[in-house]
Write a structure and sequence with these properties.
This protein has helices at residues 2-20, 46-61, 75-87, 100-113, 139-153, 170-185, 200-212, 225-237, 253-260, 272-289, 322-328; strands at residues 21-22, 25-26, 35-39, 65-69, 92-96, 117-120, 134-136, 158-163, 189-195, 219-222, 245-250, 266-269, 296-298, 302-304. By secondary structure, the chain is an alpha/beta fold.
């Protein structure tokens, strides 16, 4: 009888160990003060910084301490940051991708230490790895959303595409999505495409060149809101501002301000605040509850115009915007 009791205790201990360490990663113990680590790309990067702020805000709401380390885009510093978080024995780690290949290295380090890890902004080079999830834009979907919006809103128009810098992979995806929508709807003619360096000055120059060449267009799709600023300047110089519709992407503070002022007509908003909140949610639910989300979660795309500006999810998470942003992603729990 005593022997059977010892066997039962041993089985129970093994079961508890299995439940608390599953797939090489530890789940949190009830009542334990949790600490989440975050390895940034660079806090100087506006997109990354807004995501970090949303992550930190949600963590604070849930009573979780955060340690944010900024390698400033340096691969060696990112590895050192992972070593630091492992030494501090954090309960979970989020990584904002610097390179997909580095993600694999950081994953292996976290796995060896038994710490759950999740990624944001780009998929790791090896998507077969057992990380929690990845939240990122699907740039072809954003391009498609822009093409769909323009096709439905401005049928019969001639479109000039002021695109980002080729060779990054991102720009090509935007272009593929845009072309797909234009072909499917067949209501808009794409009359020209000009690459830029993602900046306002280059966007202004290519728009000025298109105007001076005699190219006829009545809608411009600018690949981001900074570029839209350059497009606006070119149109103003040519006396065409207000006559040519402008559609951009982003949904950042400056973009929403331009919509409010009537300077651009629409933006395909992909709120980075939701990226930070979703990334936190994935890590939180896994560490606290052992719930694993979808392995890839695309950032929502919300077309914003002056008519639905009040529905925009700001990039900045504040006391006023937090509840609406969290509700949009179905809560944190």
């Amino acid at each position: 009888m005593e022997k059977r009791g010892k066997i039962l205790v041993a089985v129970l201990l093994i079961t508890v160990m299995f439940l608390s360490v599953w797939g090489g990663f530890s789940f949190a113990q009830e009542g334990k003060k949790l600490v989440f680590g975050y390895i940034a790309y660079s806090r100087k990067d506006v997109w990354n910084n807004y995501s970090i702020l949303a992550f930190e805000y949600a963590a604070k709401k849930k009573g979780i301490e955060t340690i944010v380390l900024d390698p400033e885009g340096n691969l060696e510093k990112a590895v050192a940051a992972m070593e630091d978080l492992i030494a501090k024995k954090v309960d979970g780690i989020s990584v904002f991708t610097i390179t997909p290949e580095l993600d694999v290295t950081l994953y292996e380090m976290a796995k060896k230490a038994g710490i759950p890890i999740t990624f944001e902004n780009s998929l790791p080079a090896d998507t077969s790895l057992d990380y929690i999830s990845c939240v990122a834009c699907q740039y072809d979907d954003i391009g498609y959303a822009a093409g769909k919006f323009i096709s439905e809103k401005y049928p019969g128009s001639k479109l000039f595409y002021v695109m980002g810098a080729p060779g990054m992979g991102i720009t090509e995806l935007y272009e593929q999505g845009l072309h797909k929508a234009l072909e499917e709807y067949g209501t808009v003619e794409l009359v020209g495409t000009q690459p830029t360096d993602w900046g306002a000055e280059k966007a202004m120059n290519v728009t000025q060149n298109a105007i001076q060449s005699g190219l006829q267009f009545d809608v411009i799709f600018a690949n981001n809101e900074q570029m839209a600023t350059g497009v606006i300047n070119a149109l103003k110089d040519a006396g065409l501002f207000g006559k040519v519709k402008i559609v951009a992407t982003g949904g950042g503070p400056h973009g929403l301000e331009m919509i409010a002022k009537g300077e651009i007509d629409a933006t395909m908003s992909a709120p980075v605040s939701l990226q930070g909140l979703l990334t936190f949610k994935n890590l939180y639910q896994y560490v606290v509850k052992g719930v694993k989300p979808e392995k890839f979660i695309p950032l929502p795309i919300i077309p914003i115009t002056k008519e639905n500006l009040a529905e925009a999810i700001p990039w900045e998470v504040t006391d006023e915007t937090y509840e609406r942003a969290v509700a949009y992603i179905g809560g944190l729990d």
